[in-house]
Design a protein that fits this description.
Length: 258
């Protein structure tokens, strides 16, 4: 079986078996392949549940990814001043995420896990709206947070364009039309730009908080990896000592019987 298929099996299988299965696979390999397998990170429960949807409910996973791509294209079109049905795209995406979360909970429950539905929803959303996947499909290791405006780097918004990249959020109420003899359309345009800038700042703040959270998760995972390595070392020493003890006992028994 190709090494990629064996690695896929690690992420497809039960979360509780990941470390032992990874270590067993690494022992069956040598050189760079063994090192690469040993370095594979164990998923936390939320990304593991998302992986299960990819492996065992692919239709639901594909619907989320396709609807997310449609949302992204519609949002970019709206931001650039082109015609796009953002509302319909968001509605379809919300339903696809809800279906995928339901599948993730069902698959997790059968394995005795209960990941947070909100965390699942955010991860499916972020994964489906990303311009590039953060990790190989089916091998996600970290829960994700939806990106802010940085996800649309290079897009030039038209004046007055209001953008929301979070499909779960309710749209902001439209401003009431200016009364006759009151403020001009220029004032409304200025208000729209101010609202878009305020939303951009809020998303940048949320993105910074998400980056801090992910850094903390990576730090904790590194600590787990170090502890696992130490455990493996200790187990190897114990195995060697145990083998020496058994050999000594056999020698003693042989000496007594001679």
């Amino acid at each position: 079986m190709p090494i990629d298929s064996k690695i896929d099996d690690l992420y497809r299988g039960p979360l509780s078996d990941f470390v032992s299965a990874r270590n067993a696979l690494a022992k069956s390999l040598s050189g760079d392949e063994a090192k690469a397998v040993k370095a594979l990170a164990k998923p936390t429960v939320v990304p593991w549940a998302v992986n299960q949807v990819y492996w065992h409910a692919r239709a639901a996973y594909d619907r989320v990814m396709k609807s997310g791509e449609k949302v992204r294209k519609a949002q970019i079109a709206a931001l650039e001043g082109r015609s796009a049905d953002v509302r319909a795209a968001n509605e379809a995406h919300r339903q696809a995420i809800a279906d995928a979360v339901g599948e993730a909970q069902r698959l997790s429950a059968s394995a005795g896990s209960a990941p947070s539905p909100d965390a699942l929803s955010r991860t499916f959303e972020a994964l489906s709206l990303a311009s590039e996947p953060p990790e190989a499909p089916g091998r996600l290791t970290e829960a994700l947070q939806p990106a802010g405006f940085e996800a649309l780097a290079g897009v030039k918004p038209q004046p007055g364009a209001i953008f929301s990249f979070r499909p779960r959020e309710s749209p902001r109420p439209q401003a009431a039309p200016a009364a006759r003899g009151g403020k001009s359309g220029r004032d409304q345009e200025k208000q729209s730009r101010a609202e878009a800038q305020r939303e951009a700042r809020e998303r940048e703040k949320a993105a910074a908080a998400a980056r801090e959270h992910q850094a903390a998760v990576k730090k904790a995972e590194a600590a787990v990896a170090r502890a696992e390595a130490a455990e493996q070392q200790a187990r190897a020493v114990w195995d060697k000592a145990h083998d020496a003890l058994l050999e000594a006992r056999r020698a003693l028994a042989a000496a007594k019987s001679s």
